[in-house]
Write a structure and sequence with these properties.
Number of helices: 1
Mean pLDDT: 95
Low-confidence stretches: none
Structural class: alpha+beta
Radius of gyration: 16 Å
Helix content: 25-40%
Strand content: 35-45%
Largest sheet: 6 strands, antiparallel
Number of strands: 6
Strand order of the largest sheet: 1-2-3-4-5-6
Number of domains: 1
Shape: globular
Amino acid sequence: MTETTYIIDLTPGGENRYRHHHVLEKNKLVEFRLQYEAYLDGKWHAVARYDSFHGFAHRDVMHPDGTETKTVFQNWDYHQVLTFGERDLKQNWVTYRRAYERELNQWKQRRKDKR
């Protein structure tokens, strides 16, 4: 079994990072997790993730209220999703961040309005 884990800073300030983890058994990909994380309001937030947990390949887009939007990649093998997910997160992290920040600001405003 070969396990690979690393983190890449996506910006010089270190406020955006790509986290990568995968496990190979006899050159077969058996597990993976790719995640884009943003540093906002003094803490790290998981924003978008591709993984094989729960026994199938999928993407979770996280929301500040704790919910997630899941996209399942039916008829894709783990290698295909790993390659697609890595490219997606590295190329589109700005879009994911902006959407998350917008939702975070709306969520904070709703909480403030309830007081």
